[in-house]
Amino acid sequence: MRKPLHVACTIDRQGGAARSSNATRRHAKPQTASQDVIAPLPSVQEAGKVASSGQSSSQAEQNRALHSLAELFPPQHVEGLHPGLLLYFPLGCVVAALRMALWTVLILADSEWLTDNDTSIKVLLFMLGINVRWHNDALLPQERHVLVSNHVSTGDLMMLYKRPQRYVHLVAPGLPSRVTEVQNHRISMKVACKDAFMQLCDPGLSDSIHIFPEGGMTNGRGMMRFSRGFMTFAKRLPVVPVALRVALPWGLHTHTLTSSFAANMFWFCFAPWVRLDATVLPPMQFSEGEQKGKFVARVQSVIAEELGIPISDITIQRKREVVKLARKLDDM
C-alpha cells in the first residue's frame, strides 16, 4: 500500500467484547498461562448432537456454551439500564450517526491533510471521543521491531494514530475495497495474505509491524490463545509486548460474541468517550534454540501478567466455530 511504513496486522474484525479493565489489576498478583487458564469450551460436535435432540435441549446447550464464553465475551452491548445511559441514549444515537458519517467522509476523501496530520488527528480523536494514552513508550526500539498486543475494542487501532510513524494494517477479506485502499491515513490497510507477509520480511524495509495475535477481540478480562503469525518476523526483529486496556462508561461494550461489524461500529461511536491505555513492556528476543510455541507463550504471559488476567485455551478458530453454533441455535 505504502512505502516504508509501520504495519499492523489482525485476522478478525469482529467478535469478543470490550470492557473497562480495572486499574487495580496492574497491581494484582501476576497470572501466567500455566498458572491461570480459563476452562475450555464444550466441543461443537457435542453441542450439535444436543441441538438435534429438541428445542429445549438446544436452548439448554446454547445457554451452557454462552455461559462458558461469558469469561471472554459478554452476550450484549449494554450490561444494565444505568440512569445516565437512559438520559444519554437519544443524544448518543445522534452522536453515533454523526461519527459514523465522519468515518465515511474520511475514508472517501482519503486526504493526507485530514488523517495524516498531527493537528487534524487530535481534532479527529476529540470528535470521536477517543482518549489514547501511551505508557513507557520510551521502551520502543529505534530500529525496526514487532509490536504485539491484546485486542479489546473495535477502535484499538486508533492508538496507532497517536504514534508519529505510519502503519499498515492487515485485515481479513470482507471489508469494502474502498476501506482497504486508503493511502493517506496514518494507518493504511491491506488484505492479509502470504504474499503480504513475505513482502514484509524484506530486510530492506524499514517498516515496523504491529500484530493482534489473538485474531479477534475479547472483553479485557481474559485473552484468547495467541497464534504464531508474528513468528514470521520474530526471528529477525525484536518483539515488543504491549498491554492494552479499554474503558467505557455505564458498562458499555463495543462488541459481543456474535455482533456484526456495523453493530460494533455503532456502539463504539455511540459511547460518549472511550479511553485506550497502551503500556509498552520491555522488548523480547527470540533465540535460535527456543521453540516457537514457547516463545509465543512467553510473550503472551508477559502481557497477561501486566494486565493481571488469565489466558484461555480458546483460539480464534474455536471462537469462530462457537459463533456459527450460537447463530445456528438462535435460528432453531
UniProtKB/TrEMBL annotation:
Taxonomy, superkingdom: Eukaryota
Record carries keyword Acyltransferase: yes
Keywords attached to this entry: Acyltransferase, Lipid metabolism, Membrane, Transferase, Transmembrane, Transmembrane helix
Listed InterPro entries: Plipid/glycerol_acylTrfase
Subcellular location: Membrane
Location of the Phospholipid/glycerol acyltransferase domain: 145-247
Name of the molecule in the record: G585 protein
Gene name in the database record: g585
